[in-house]
Automatic annotation (TrEMBL):
<keyword id="KW-0411">Iron-sulfur</keyword>
<protein>
    <submittedName>
        <fullName>Formate dehydrogenase subunit alpha</fullName>
        <ecNumber>1.17.1.9</ecNumber>
    </submittedName>
</protein>
<comment type="similarity">
    <text>In the C-terminal section; belongs to the prokaryotic molybdopterin-containing oxidoreductase family.</text>
</comment>
<keyword id="KW-0004">4Fe-4S</keyword>
<keyword id="KW-0677">Repeat</keyword>
<feature type="domain" description="4Fe-4S Mo/W bis-MGD-type">
    <location>
        <begin position="8"/>
        <end position="64"/>
    </location>
</feature>
<dbReference type="GO" id="GO:0008863">
    <property type="term" value="F:formate dehydrogenase (NAD+) activity"/>
</dbReference>
<comment type="similarity">
    <text>Belongs to the complex I 75 kDa subunit family.</text>
</comment>
<keyword id="KW-0479">Metal-binding</keyword>
<keyword id="KW-0560">Oxidoreductase</keyword>
<keyword id="KW-0408">Iron</keyword>
<keyword id="KW-0001">2Fe-2S</keyword>
Length: 699
């Protein structure tokens, strides 16, 4: 992909990896990229970048790209290359056959946070209007769905409250279950700049992540909790704030519901929630919890940043609400330098949620049972729509195993590698009669597909991504969508449109800007958004409408989106995933800097030189107890399954806890994760799996 020599022209676009959403200038020679240069005018990155956005783009022209549609009758058959017409026609006729035989609700679709807003919008429209049901979900289900739920309940909007630059006004930064230097490197660097200027730092994480101790940065407090005890810890912090008189009474009186606050205050004040009473649960010394709570409540502007270490738990939504409670109780919300900020993993997690990719919500987080909202979409789309929520991803798997769900359209998501309990996922896929995978590569999920539609990379399409700070940025076509015959292929939105037309529901968009115009017409928080305005302003943070024509960097300034802030009770319920003599260690998972999620892209780039395998991090004591030395192969067994990895012995870990990444299919991290999930959203509990480790010979 990377051509040598002088660039002839450049195109400004947005990185397709993490939720920072860095702006780049793709310097081009003909149709080849010479280099990716971070854009000094980029509002999210100000000219900075990381090793993924700058160097890991070679996957776009990798030899593994599939450029010709393929079909097969059975998953045991070889693939047969066919024309686009035949592939789309086959997928549509199979979906129609399945619905005729098994009913309207027997098929569904999954969108991806890797695709543009316009593409995810079209998938949910395809499902609701062409399939005639609400069986649409997004990969945000398995990462930040608890953020959507928890922040909506407390603050009234399913999004972070601040822009990234706000961190430069923070006096105390609390990082909970996030690893910004690996997961969100450009923002992690900005956070470190603020810390070097003197901001104080509290880290809540079972593992000693980099930001706890890096050059010129030392966390004031590292609350090294046991995985699965976030709720107990957050409630203990609240206990200290309430019982030591650290509540911002004026803020709460003016901005929050009196009733819910009174109930919450009485609840957290109970002695059973004190740091001393919960020390044996969380493993964090009570004095450390007290010191951290005092610092957050009294240290000036307190800003909370959190990640998947909060959401991917059986009580993920409860912890999100507990974090919002802390911010409201201390008045740390509604101005620069404070707030509740989910660090979104993928480039367009925020956007895929905003676009109505959940089975219960239309674009703009409006419930499908809302008659007025549904009527507006029925009027615009010209079809009757269902008023009951459809199936979430795990419900689709269950329904498939029950024989009720037979067809699935998957755009840009490798559920056979990324979702928990791989055996369960693959059994579900195997039981379906038509699985359509639209992707760049023959990924793990494609092994169970009957139709493969070649998707397009971010370099091959126009559209928008929305980053973790609600910033909508343009993605621009740098090269033509690839095709096997050298002619122009299709961007993903065009493929969805073809499928919809073949299903009998007409779509005739000529360009993604027309899709965004429709989104803006139908979504109050997007009323002012258009490609023209984004191009003029550089980027826009929603809400962008009549009240905020240039967008909204900080939310909830004068009042919360829901009016008064609502405190929610956060009762700690231990996870069902227990350690015992057979499975005495807890496995937790995460990412590293150079690779990205399931690695479908970064594994096919030079980044694999820096990290070519997933490893199991284990504390020296646990390693010694098992006779494991650095680099040894170890077997990892859980209640769900088993796999084999090489070990890295690390003081970062606490005794009893092991850690791995999930970037390589061979590692099988999700073979061992379980079906446990968040009580409110079904977000999988990736962060807590009871395991046993044994030394093995090389597999
Ligand atoms: Fe891309 Fe995130 Fe790196 Fe920026 S920080 S270059 S958005 S991966």
């Amino acid at each position: 992909l990377i051509a040598k020599g002088q660039a002839e022209h450049s195109v400004v676009t947005t990185c397709a990896y993490c939720g920072v959403g860095c702006s780049f200038r793709a310097e081009m020679k003909g149709e080849e990229v010479v280099r990716m240069v971070p854009n000094k005018d980029g509002h999210a990155n100000h000219g900075h970048s990381c090793v993924k956005g700058r160097f890991a783009i070679g996957y776009a022209t990798h030899k593994d790209r599939i450029l010709k549609p393929m079909i097969r009758a059975k998953i045991s058959d070889p693939w047969r290359e066919v024309s686009w017409e035949e592939a789309i026609g086959h997928a549509a006729s199979e979906f129609k056959r399945i619905q005729a035989r098994y009913g309207r609700d027997s098929i569904g679709g999954i969108t991806s946070s890797r695709c543009t807003n316009e593409e995810t919008y079209l998938v949910q429209k395809l499902v609701r209007a062409a399939f005639g049901n609400n069986n649409v979900d997004t990969c945000a289900r398995v990462c930040h769905s608890p953020t959507g739920y928890g922040l909506k309940q407390t603050l009234g909007e399913s999004a972070g409250t601040q822009d990234f630059d706000s961190v430069m006004q923070a006096d105390v930064i609390m990082v909970i279950g996030a690893n910004p230097t690996d997961g969100h490197p450009v923002f992690g660097s900005q956070m470190k700049r603020r810390l070097r200027q003197g901001a104080r730092l509290i880290v809540v994480d079972p593992r000693r992540i980099d930001i706890v101790r890096t050059p010129h940065v030392r966390a004031d407090h590292h609350l090294k909790l046991r995985p699965g005890t976030n709720v107990a810890l957050v409630t203990a912090l609240a206990h200290v704030i309430v019982t030591e008189g650290l509540v911002d009474e004026a803020f709460v009186r003016e901005r929050c519901e009196a009733d819910s606050f009174a109930k919450w205050r009485a609840f957290v004040a109970e002695g059973r929630h004190s740091p001393e009473a919960t020390e044996s649960v969380t493993g964090v010394p009570a004095a450390t919890v007290r010191a951290a709570a005092r610092l957050y409540a009294t240290g000036g502007n307190g800003a909370i940043y959190y990640g998947l270490g909060v959401t991917e738990h059986s009580q993920g939504s409860t912890t999100v609400m507990g974090i919002a409670n802390l911010a409201m109780a201390t008045g740390n919300i509604g101005r620069e330098g404070v707030g509740v900020n989910p660090l979104r993993g993928q480039n367009n997690v925020q956007g895929s949620c905003d676009m109505g990719s959940f089975p219960h919500e239309f674009p703009g987080y409006r419930h499908v049972s809302d008659d007025a909202v549904r009527a507006s979409f029925e009027h615009a789309w010209g079809v009757p729509l269902q008023n009951e929520p459809g199936l979430r991803i795990p419900n689709m798997f269950e329904a498939a195993l029950d024989g009720d769900f037979k067809g699935l359209y998957i755009e840009g998501e490798d559920i056979a590698q990324s979702d928990p309990n791989t055996q369960h996922v693959t059994a579900s896929l195997t039981s379906m009669e038509c699985v359509v995978v639209q992707d760049l590569f023959l990924n793990e999920t494609a092994k169970f597909a009957h139709v493969f539609l070649p998707g397009s990379s971010f370099l091959e399409k126009d559209g928008t991504f929305t980053n973790a700070e609600r910033r909508i940025s343009r993605v621009r076509e740098v090269m033509r969508p690839r095709n096997s015959d050298g002619k122009r292929g299709y961007a993903d939105w065009e493929i969805t449109q073809l499928l919809s037309n073949a299903m009998g529901y007409r779509m005739d968009y000529a360009h993604p800007s027309e899709i965004m115009d429709e989104i803006a017409r139908l979504t109050p928080t997007f009323h002012g958004v258009s490609f023209e305005r984004i191009d003029r302003l550089g980027s826009i943070q929603w809400p962008c409408n009549e009240a905020a024509p240039d967008g909204t960097p900080t939310m909830h300034v004068h009042e919360f989106v829901r009016g008064k802030g609502r405190f929610m009770l956060t009762e700690y319920v231990p996870t069902a995933e227990k350690v015992n003599a057979k499975f005495p260690l807890i496995l937790t998972t995460g990412r590293i800097l150079s690779q990205y999620n399931v690695g479908a892209q970064t594994r096919r780039t030079e980044n694999s030189r820096w990290h070519s395998e997933d490893r199991l991090e284990i504390h020296p004591q646990d390693a010694e107890d098992r006779g494991v030395a650095e680099g040894d192969w170890v077997g990892i067994e859980s209640r769900a399954g088993q796999t084999v990895l090489r070990a890295t012995i690390s003081e970062r870990m606490q005794p009893g806890v092991v850690y791995t990444t999930f970037h390589f299919p061979f590692s099988g991290a999700n073979v061992i994760t379980t079906d446990n999930s968040d009580w409110a959203t079904n977000c999988p509990e990736y962060k807590v799996t009871a395991v046993q480790i044994t030394r093995v010979t090389q597999p």
